[in-house]
Amino acid sequence: MVGWVLQVACDVPVAVSAAGVFDYAPIELNNTPLNLAVPEAWLGHTVLVPFGKQLLVGIVMGISTTSEVPPAKLKPIQAVLPFVPQMSGHWLDLVRFMAKYYQRGLGEVALPALPIALRVAKNFVWDQTTGEMTLRTGMRTWRKWRALPPSPALLNVGQALNLTHAQHVVLDDLLERRHIDLRPQLLFGVTGSGKTEVYLQYLAHVLQDSADGQVLILVPEINLTPQFAARLNARFGMETVVTLHSGLNESTRLMNWWRAASGQARVILGTRLSVLAMLPNLQAIVVDEEHDSSYRQQEGVRYSARDVAIYRAHQLNIPIVLGSATPSLETWHNACTGRYGLHRLPERAVKGAMLPEVTLVDVQKTAAQDGLSEPMRRTITETMVQHHTTLLFQNRRGYAPVFYCGHCGHIHDCPNCAAHFVYHSTTRHLHCHHCGQQERVPKTCIKCGNADMHPIGQGTQRLEETAARLWPKAIVRRIDADSTRKKGELEDAFADIAAGVVDIVIGTQMLAKGHDWPNLNTVGVLDVDSGLFAQDYRAPERLFALLQQVIGRAGRGQQAGRVLIQTAFPEHPMWTQVRTHDFETFATSELAVRQQLGLPPFAAHALLQVAAPELKQALAFAQTARELALILIADHLEFAHVTINAAVPMNMMRLNRQERAQILIECPSRPRLQAFLAQWQGALVAQKSRLMWLIEVDPAEI
Ligand SMILES: Nc1ncnc2c1ncn2[C@@H]1O[C@H](COP(=O)(O)OP(=O)(O)OP(=O)(O)O)[C@@H](O)[C@H]1O
Ligand SMILES: [Zn+2]
Q1: 3-state class (DSSP) for residue 646
Q2: SS (H, E, C) 355-368
Q3: Burial annotation 324-358 (CB, 10 A radius, 16+ → b, else e)
């Protein structure tokens, strides 16, 4: 025993260990220069450790001179992994912050930030002949990466656009502030206002400031990365740019991660997971479409990549720019109260391009046939005659959302979830969009045996069929999660749309944002009424943003754009602001409602979610949790303003064969809520329940 131990973070659920770190004895190993004389040098190294009967990959988060494990029981580490760069102190701090803020174990946060090949113990093997450690998969990528020059890639700044006056003003202001005003800076620019060009020129300055500086650009969806990466490559040179997202194959992801983590890549473009990438020389962050709900990680540790990015910038004292045409209400509130800087681009960048004219089609008056009203059909035909492209926005994939027996009225539901099966014509199967269950379409109703079964309602596949029937000569492309599973399919479709050869594009929200297709000048919006009346308090915000984004795809070139929205509720107050593209009025009135009701951003929320085979078990645990919370509040004066709501079944109660209950916790002060949650979580872990439960901080939906 050397008098100190390694605190190693392993990916173990919080219910097993709230802290997620375990003590191990350091030992000298011959494949590493680390020795027992310099404990601090071990920090941030990735190691293999015995855990029960298995080996796990872990990261050294701390050094301690004391341990609760008696020396005789302390196990030694097995190896220091040579394939993972040492994580910086900043990175370790980021992990600590996230674990604390989101109430998770350190290992649950830290390990998923590594590429899969580096977080599975079985992938590391000793070569018996040389005595060296090797990777079962990824060794070739490792050699390729090692062969690259270790120095940061040289920047090669390409031709920039001439900025419009408004872009100039914003860029100058951002550049001036980058050393003196490190509040997050919101770039509030209408769709097509040229935010991307501002980011590029801004980042070019940041990169030229230092020879090894890195910048991180976050985008909400994988499908936006090819277009963005192409612009970055053209501007900064292929050698400097890497992308990081879950759609990459394993070896590319590994390579890109190494290039970023070693400081070799200078420009890192990624989706939410890249916010956790180890970046040794990060100098600036841009979060594009900062309002987008895709920035929320909904599995494992539930975090907001936008919020983590803001923390990361703050921690490093570097600038961060958030861009959006429809900022989240939290961000907008912060900009209005001066906590964030605010920059505006009120007009489109392309000369002559204007925001499109928006018309409502009252489907109570002009009935829609096969989902398309007469004015909608006429406009599509006109657009085709002019050789322009129409985008039909139908935010539901599959053929029909309901499969129904005309005889007994039975609707076919997923056996695992509280959800209807969606009929898919391409597979001729019923699919559950929640758990993935697929079943053959039954020949007769499973309830009454009658063969009179129909798909009801419309999804993208049915709309595609309708479009092909109504416009037999049209080139139609459907873009949704089902149509784009094959590699390259999406890129091909995008290339066709960009080239202007597609007449009708049918798409879900996947298509609504970010894309810039000059030939697209008509947008038809179908089936959004349910969003007008949804329960969740964030529903209006989400719908408004989605509509502005999809409307914003029209008329980005020289041709004026037009948008038709089919609705049965044309008198709904939201339409006025949608039609006039008036985000500010919308945001002001929504924020007033939120303030009145004490909802975020005027209060902080957390949820306890419990899942069990039966609802009563889930509710019983939630009830116990509630009682524990009430005791904590009674015992601590500082928790007086924490409100614990009743334990209730979740909106979507049954998911994947589990029944779910939840408790909403509210508090006007975020730090107090944090302090409360930490203590409560400890009390919950002590219950040693076998049920699945978790605390979600800042939940996107309640
Ligand atoms: N200064 C400029 N001069 C000419 N064209 C420009 C200029 N800046 C941007 N553009 C063009 O304007 C179009 C829209 O720009 P961009 O896609 O960056 O907008 P955006 O603000 O990101 O929009 P969205 O919010 O809809 O994603 C692009 O085709 C871009 O090339
Ligand atoms: Zn299901």
Answers
A1: coil
A2: CCEEEEEECCCCCC
A3: bbbbbbbbbbbbbeeebbbbebebbbbeebebbeb
* Cα 631–chain centre separation: 36
Q: Which helix (H) or strand (E) holds 509?
A: none
Residue type, 678: A
CA-closest residue to ligand 1 atom 4: 350
How many other C-beta atoms can be found within 10 angstroms of the C-beta atom of residue 85?
Answer: 18
- For residue 391 the two structure tokens come to 């985008």
Ligand 1: nearest atom to the Cα of 350 = 5
Distance 207 CA to ligand 1 centre (A): 22
The DSSP result for 294-361, as a single string, is GGB--SSS--BHHHHHHHHHHHHT--EEEEESS--HHHHHHHHTTSSEEEEE-S-SSTT--PPEEEEE
Q: Is 157 in the pocket of ligand 1 (CB under 6 A)?
A: no
Residues with CB under 5 A from ligand 2 (ion): 414, 416-417, 432, 434-435, 437
Of the pLDDT bands very low, low, confident and very high (cuts 50, 70, 90), residue 615 is very high
- Judge whether residue 36 has pLDDT over 90: no
Ligand nearest to the CA of 286: 1
Q: How many CB atoms lie within 10 A of CB 590?
A: 20
Q: What is the pLDDT of residues 533-565, one digit of tens each?
A: 888 899 999 999 999 999 999 988 888 899 999
Q: 486: phi > 0 → left, psi -120 to 50 → alpha, else beta; which?
A: beta
Beta pairing partners, 284: 215
Cβ of residue 155 lying under 6 Å from some atom of ligand 1: no
- 121 pLDDT exceeds 70? yes
pLDDT digits (tens, 9 = 90+) for 374-423: 999 999 999 999 999 999 999 899 998 888 888 888 999 999 988 899 99
What pLDDT sits at residue 368?
83
pLDDT for the residue numbered 513: 79
- SS3 string, 440-505, reads ECCCCCCCCCCCCEEEECCCHHHHHHHHHHHCCCCCEEEECCCCCCCCCHHHHHHHHHHHCCCCEE
Q: Is the peptide bond before 375 cis (omega within 30 degrees of 0)?
A: no
Residue type, 24: Y
Which range has the worst mean pLDDT, 3-7, 37-41, 156-160, 676-680? 156-160
Report how far ligand 1's centroid is from the alpha carbon of 350 (Å): 7
Distance CA 253, CA 245 (A): 8
Closest CA to 76 of 25, 136, 12: 25
Decide: 504 and 526 in contact? Cβ < 8 Å. Answer: no
Checking if the pLDDT of 19 tops 80, the result is no
Q: How far is residue 245's CA from residue 219's CA, in Å, rounded to a whole number?
A: 10
CB atoms within 10 A of CB 586: 24
Q: Please give the Cα distance from 581 to 347 (Å, whole number).
A: 11
Return d(Cα 523, Cα 551) in angstroms, integer: 7
Q: Cα of 401 to ligand 2 centre, how many Å? A: 13
Tokens linked to 145:
């990466």
Domains of the chain: 5-137 (3.40.1440.60), 165-345 (3.40.50.300), 357-397+459-593 (3.40.50.300), 604-697 (3.30.70.360)
Strands 643-644, 658-667: parallel, antiparallel or unpaired by DSSP?
A: antiparallel
Q: How far apart are CA 484 and CA 474, in angstroms?
A: 20
pLDDT digits (tens, 9 = 90+) for 321-346: 999 999 999 999 999 999 999 999 99
